[in-house]
Amino acid sequence: GSSLLTGPEGLMAKERENLKRLKCLRRYRQRYGVEALLHRQLKERRMLATDGAAQQAHTTRSSQRCLAFVDDVRCTNQSLPMTRHCLTHICQDTNQTLFKPCQGSEEVPCNKPVPVSLSEDPCCPLHLRLPPQMYVPEQVLAVPEELEAAPTDLYLSAAELQPTESLPLEFSD
What pLDDT, in 10s, does the model give residues 55-98? Predict the structure, then answer.
């Protein structure tokens, strides 16, 4: 509506006041001057912090190598995300709490890193202790030979099972 009413000559005082308010409301949330510049810089910093920096950190972190040394030679494996050690040397990091070394057995010690679980002493699959067997098969009972050679005259044939006379549906005592 402001393009049709280009000048204040055709408007009454009340209409001019309403037009002024309308223009103010249109730019009510817009920032001007120093405030606009600071707001734009803040938005750019946030974009870098969320998108660009996250992608950059991911690419640099994924290309980093493990910091562990084995026989004075640095490990060549890639480090785990958000850590400085690979999976085989993660237990050397004293600040991590997600992995523990496998306790192994008395005969074969094992220091393989195992994720911490709900169990008290996590073990690798090689040293995992299985629970006792829950299913115990039943012993087969031997059938006496007397029962096996039962006479067949005790059993009725299908013809003998057919009723010969019609019985009432209800039986009375």
Answer: 555 555 546 888 888 888 988 899 888 888 998 899 888 888 88
What's the token pair of residue 113? 């890193």
Please give the Cα distance from 111 to 116 (Å, whole number): 14
Question: Is 9 within the bounds of a domain?
Answer: no
Residue 72: alpha-carbon gap to chain centroid: 38
Among residues 109, 136, 138, which one has the least CA distance to residue 123?
Answer: 109
- Is 60 exceeded by the pLDDT of residue 7? no
> What's the start-to-end Cα distance of the chain, in Å?
103
| Total tally of structural domains belonging to the chain | 1
* Domain span holding position 95: 32-115
Residue 147 resides in a domain = no
What is the average pLDDT across 1-21? 70
27 CB neighbour count, 10 Å cutoff: 9
19 CB contacts (<8 Å, ≥6 apart)? 1, 2, 5, 11
Local structure of 49: helix, strand or coil: helix
The reported pLDDT for the residue numbered 111 is 81
Residue 167 lies in a domain: no
Is there a domain that residue 140 lies in?
Answer: no
